[in-house]
């Protein structure tokens, strides 16, 4: 305590000055109550009160001595059966709750007034006592401060009633322990941690009320932080009120108690309920703290989660007792001695703190060691002192009141204890590592899946490309084959074309020839017709000539007859007869020649007839060929259409040729005319011959 706590500058004040200061705060308490119904510590300098409703309050350490002073309330127990049965009963105190004042009677005519932070009459409810005394501390603890609520008083005055009452049958009877846990459990979330240890200090031995086998549990003090702990005690996580009630009842069962003259159930030990609260600092508050303290917790870019660890001590002290009154003997006496000894040590420390003494005898007892942080330390502390009403216990009441008065002078240095939650960070980082590992695994899995897919696709692509290559090779082979075939076909076609050309040429030639022939044939036909006509004429002439020849023959026969007759006459005329014979012979020779000419002419006429027939036949053949050619011509007409121009050109050549042919025909015609002329000459000659023959005959 000496190292952590010092009495405030108000420690030198007289009780009245303390009262004055309390008066200031009392008005603030009233104000707070009006605002929110809860009693908070309102600073006279106008700062906001430390209440659960003050959500926006600063988390800065508050060093207002008044606000950090140990709060002390006094509670008067109702008269008990002893008091009621006391015929000489007299009140030793007069309470003025509205003034938060207690008047302690010195004697029948005088009294001394003491100011407290709150004064509870015997009718004060458990609820109100809790809300005024303990609740602000509980809220402070929920905000991250350490806190202590302690009951101090003479045995049998209601310390256990005020703090440890379970209120199983009547909820309104619940004491501060149950109500505090109720509030804590309501105010904390699942992410927060609420744990308890419940120990008793019995005859300077710390024993675990939740695990009674644990005795002589050592007190551990952290040299650096001054933190006091009993790590040997069982720590139980509290999740609900029923669970807590169970443990509280268990502790009650395990607590040393005895039936004394003063109290049928007198606690023989100091019970200390330690509530450990571990809360994560909200993000915004965390940020505010970082900004305010300019100390951003950053490890490799990660903000460290900050937690607030706070501890609430609910201390139900064993009651001080006067051995003569309690009647303790033997073991009870020993217990009482230890109780009184430890309470005395506490009183000494409080005195020393109140008097700002350089030495605080913290180490005189385990109780003061355990409460080192509660008085003069960093905790917010509320003390409720319990007193009995009977004047019979005036001295004990006066001692208690004075203890309370001194305690009011003790100023603590409250501070929030925040630390980086390495455990949580570790868990978070582990979770992050797990998450990242699983993410990596997942991604690896996806990569594997993707790779497999890619490999499969690649294989498929490879296969398809091989297939495509095969197909393209087959196709190219096919194309090459087709190409070869087409080339061959093209060659054939070219050849065919050539042959077609050739044929065309042949046909053209043939057509030309046919056309020529046609022309010729026409011409010949015409010529033939003409010749036929001429021949007819010739034939007529010949027939006529034949008739004439016949006539001439007949004439010749007649002449021969006449000649015979003449010969006979010649015989009669010998000279004349000789000349006549010669002439006759000459004529006979001429007639023979003429006959021969006639026969030749006849033969020639027959030949001409045959020739005519042959030509007719030839014309018929030509006409048939022409008909065939016309069929073929119609067949080739389409093909010839494209080459008509060429044919036209050729036709010109043919025309030329035809002209030549025409010229030739003209020549033939001339020849024919010449033949006709010859024939006519022959006819003329024949006529001459005939005339000569006629003259001769006539002459003859
Ligand atoms: N405010 C009260 N109203 C009604 N009954 C009370 C009140 N305070 C105490 N009592 C009763 O007085 C008796 C003694 O109280 P309690 O055991 O709490 O005293 P104590 O201070 O704890 O005593 P000790 O120090 O011996 O343990 C109990 O029967 C309790 O019910």
From TrEMBL:
* Compositionally biased residues, Low complexity: 14-32
Q: Which compartments does it reside in?
A: Cytoplasm, Cytoskeleton
Which lineage do the record's taxonomy fields give for this organism? Eukaryota, Viridiplantae, Streptophyta, Embryophyta, Tracheophyta
Q: Which residues does the annotation say bind ATP?
A: 153-160
Q: Which residues cross the membrane?
A: none
Kindly give the InterPro entries that the UniProt entry links to this protein.
Answer: KIF11-like (IPR047149), Kinesin_motor_CS (IPR019821), Kinesin_motor_dom (IPR001752), Kinesin_motor_dom_sf (IPR036961), P-loop_NTPase (IPR027417)
Name of the protein in its database record? Kinesin-like protein
Is Disulfide bond tagged as a keyword?
A: no
Does the keyword Ligase belong to this entry? no
Coiled-coil residue spans: 451-555, 584-685
């Amino acid at each position: 305590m000496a190292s952590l706590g010092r009495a405030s500058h108000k420690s030198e004040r007289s009780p009245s000055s303390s009262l004055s200061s309390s008066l200031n705060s009392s008005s603030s308490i009233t104000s707070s109550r009006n605002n929110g119904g809860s009693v908070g510590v309102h600073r006279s300098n106008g700062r906001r009160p430390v209440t659960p409703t003050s959500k926006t309050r600063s988390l800065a350490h508050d060093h207002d001595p008044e606000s950090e002073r140990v709060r002390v309330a006094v509670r008067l127990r109702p008269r008990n059966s002893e008091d009621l049965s006391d015929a000489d009963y007299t009140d030793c105190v007069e309470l003025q709750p509205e003034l938060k004042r207690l008047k302690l009677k010195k004697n029948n005519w005088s009294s001394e007034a003491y100011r407290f932070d709150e004064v509870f009459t015997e009718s004060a409810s458990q609820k109100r006592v809790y809300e005024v005394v303990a609740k602000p501390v509980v809220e402070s603890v929920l905000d991250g401060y350490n806190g202590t609520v302690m009951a101090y008083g003479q045995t049998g005055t209601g310390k256990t009633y005020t703090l440890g009452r379970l209120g199983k049958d009547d909820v309104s009877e619940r004491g501060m322990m149950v109500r505090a846990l109720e509030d804590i459990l309501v105010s904390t979330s699942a992410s927060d941690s609420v744990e308890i240890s419940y120990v008793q200090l019995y005859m300077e031995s710390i024993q675990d009320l939740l695990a009674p086998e644990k005795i002589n549990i050592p007190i551990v003090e952290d040299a650096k932080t001054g933190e006091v702990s009993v790590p040997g005690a069982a720590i139980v996580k509290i999740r609900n009120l029923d669970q807590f009630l169970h443990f509280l009842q268990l502790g009650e069962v395990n607590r040393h108690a005895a039936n004394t003259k003063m109290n049928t159930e007198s606690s023989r030990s100091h019970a200390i309920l330690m509530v450990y609260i571990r809360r994560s600092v909200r993000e915004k508050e965390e940020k505010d703290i970082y900004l305010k303290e300019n100390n951003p917790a950053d490890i490799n870019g990660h903000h460290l989660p900050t937690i607030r660890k706070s501890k609430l001590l609910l201390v139900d002290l064993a009651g001080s007792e006067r051995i003569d009154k309690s009647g303790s003997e033997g073991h009870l006496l020993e217990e009482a001695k230890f109780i009184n000894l430890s309470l005395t040590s506490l009183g000494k420390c409080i005195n020393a703190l109140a008097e700002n003494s350089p030495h605080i005898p913290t180490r005189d007892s385990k109780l003061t060691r355990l409460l080192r942080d509660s008085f003069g330390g960093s905790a917010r502390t509320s003390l409720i002192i319990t007193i009995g009403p009977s004047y019979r216990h005036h001295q004990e009441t006066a001692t208690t009141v004075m203890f309370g008065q001194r305690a009011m002078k003790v100023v603590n240095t409250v501070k929030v204890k925040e630390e980086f939650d390495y455990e949580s960070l570790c868990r978070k980082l582990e979770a992050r590592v797990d998450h990242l590992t699983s993410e990596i695994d997942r991604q690896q899995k996806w990569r594997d899946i993707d790779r497999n897919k890619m490999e499969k696709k690649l294989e498929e692509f490879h296969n398809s490309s091989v297939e495509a290559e095969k197909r393209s090779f087959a196709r190219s082979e096919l194309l090459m084959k087709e190409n070869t075939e087409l080339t061959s076909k093209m060659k054939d076609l070219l050849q065919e074309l050539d042959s077609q050309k050739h044929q065309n040429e042949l046909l053209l030639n043939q057509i030309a020839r046919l056309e020529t022939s046609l022309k010729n044939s026409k011409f010949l036909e015409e010529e033939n017709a003409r010749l036929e006509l001429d021949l007819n004429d010739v034939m007529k002439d010949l027939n006529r000539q034949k008739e004439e020849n016949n006539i001439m023959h007949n004439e010749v026969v007649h002449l021969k007859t006449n000649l015979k007759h003449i010969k006979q006459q010649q015989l009669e005329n010998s000279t004349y007869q000789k000349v006549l014979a010669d002439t006759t012979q000459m004529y006979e020779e001429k007639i023979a020649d003429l006959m021969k000419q006639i026969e030749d002419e006849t033969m020639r006429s027959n030949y001409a007839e045959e020739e005519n027939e042959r030509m007719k036949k030839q014309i018929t053949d030509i006409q048939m060929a022409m008909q065939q050619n016309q069929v073929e011509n119609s067949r080739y007409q389409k093909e010839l259409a494209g080459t008509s121009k060429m044919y036209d050109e050729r036709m010109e050549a043919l025309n030329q040729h035809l002209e030549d042919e025409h010229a030739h025909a003209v020549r033939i015609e001339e020849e024919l005319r010449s033949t006709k002329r010859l024939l006519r000459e022959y006819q003329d000659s024949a006529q001459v011959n005939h005339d000569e023959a006629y003259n001769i005959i006539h002459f003859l």
